[in-house]
Amino acid sequence: MGSGESLLHDCSILLGSALFFVLVFRRLGLGATLGFLVAGAVVGPQMLHLVGGANEKIGIAELGITLLLFIVGLGLNPSRLWQLRREIFGLGLLQVVACGIAVTAVIYFVGFSAGAALSLGLPLALSSTAQVLPMLQSSGRLRSPFGERAFAILLFQDLSIIPLITIIAAMSRNPADAGGRPGWLLMLLTIAAIAGLIALGRFAIRPLFRLIGNLGERELFVFAGLFTVMASAAVMELLGLSTALGAFVAGVMLADSPYRHELEADVEPFRSILLGLFFLAVGMMLDLHAIAERPFFVIGIAAALIATKTGVIMSIGLVFKMRWRSALALGLLLSQGGEFGFVLFAQARSAFLVTPEAASLFSAIVTLSMATTPFLMMATKRIREEPVGKAETREEPPSGSGANALIVGYGRFGQTVAQMLIASDIPVTLIDSDIEMIDVAQSFGAKVYFGDGTRMDLLRQAGAAEAELIMFCLDGDQLTADFIEGVHATFPAAAIYIRAFDRRSVIRLKPTPALGVVREVMESAVKMARMALEELGNKLEDIDRAESTYRSSDRERLRAQIDSGDLHAGQERIITQLGQFESS
């Protein structure tokens, strides 16, 4: 069988098995991550032996981890970091350190050496971002105080990956690493590389995205986004540093740019596919024979991991004045090992700190702990529900954590709508595809994101799932009834309002679930007519009567047009020079 045929064979087997197991596990409420791991184990060399070459596949699949860190970096805008600073650098730091020490101690007392225990225990302090965030999202708790604390801890865990990689590298017993750079030089090189990437992003990458945005070529935007991630990772690899760090820095340097949501929407499908392939490869690499030889060890350490992390995180939560129910739920939610544990175990194996068998056993422990999380959360659902009237309250308003209103189109119309909402203290996210308009808005202090607001994936990335209002203030006649129906079906909690170009737009869009369809010039035209009548000396009551007559006839005519779908319906209601109406 040729290499091309072999690749097609492997891809079809992997995708088919992943599709089946992910559907089954999602149906059972166990999450997609566990489905990918089981699928890999079943078709891999340990069981059915339908697909081989796990080591080669995981090399490609690790790009999924790289893209995950890029997207994490994109979410780190300064306002969000500042709002969650106490939770990130207080709660998060304490969780990683305390859980790392506690789990390391457990592994050391089981019989591992200090170096092995540390290289295994520190990675186990991390939880599964890929598993926890979707659970919070689906339960609607991501923007709650509980969800924000969980997010802050996960965020610090993602930030701590780089120091953990450095610690394991520093402890390496691999002779090939003996001639490596000293630690102080590595630190200086890392700082210089980060500074260089940030400067490159500001003076080269952002102008590149601006140029592509002006051209309006979405495919080029996808290429540019992937190039930014890969080039940043490649620079770090060339310097002997972490590729994950390069991708993370690339995300951070674009987090506060107008292109953030467009990049998230474009990169997310690649991240999802490659991260799924990563979990498939990890499942294929699990040494099921070693696990079968020591099942009680795997089950016992997995139970100890869950119990230890739950107890430590619950104690930290109580120190941070969380209610015991929420603290227990937080501990259970983050009690599993995470996907980055697989990466760090592989590095510890390469550094001769642990044997391949130990790395495989602890990969199985992470997998088993991830499998228990959905069950733990279901079992404790009643426990974590707060009594009525005793729910947690926010210590500060959640400004910047998510838009209550999402406005698509920041032209003349959208600017007025946005400023009125902001004047009422309603957080707003603004999207426009006109680069020049975005530049002008930024010169006046407004933050407008670049993107096509008629793309469902971009609306999701911009926060439509959490928005209370979605307002389409686009110029021209761009929207269709099918699109509005799709937006309502995808984001049912949001009230939809539409700027309509003319009567034809109103007739087409009024039957949709949109709560308001507003003709863009009607109110200003009525106001001008009132001003003209007043200048001619008409009495105020006569002006009010004229406006009421016009609005009534226009409303009746529009209703007839909408009911029939015919622009000429209700023509007799048009006010003409011949009389009040053309005919009675």
Features of this protein?
Na+/H+ antiporter like fold, 25 helices, six-stranded parallel β-sheet, mainly alpha, Rossmann fold
Secondary structure elements and their pairing?
Blueprint: H1 3-27, H2 32-43, H3 54-74, H4 78-83, H5 85-110, H6 114-124, H7 129-139, H8 145-170, H9 183-215, H10 218-238, H11 243-254, H12 260-285, H13 288-293, H14 295-319, H15 324-333, H16 339-350, H17 356-379, H18 381-384, E1 405-408, H19 412-423, E2 428-432, H20 435-443, E3 448-450, H21 456-461, E4 469-472, H22 481-490, E5 495-500, H23 503-509, E6 516-519, H24 522-535, H25 540-564
Parallel strand pairs: 1-2, 1-4, 2-3, 4-5, 5-6
Helix pairs in contact: 1-2, 2-12, 3-11, 3-12, 5-6, 5-8, 5-14, 6-16, 8-16, 9-10, 9-11, 10-11, 10-12, 14-15, 14-17, 16-17, 24-25
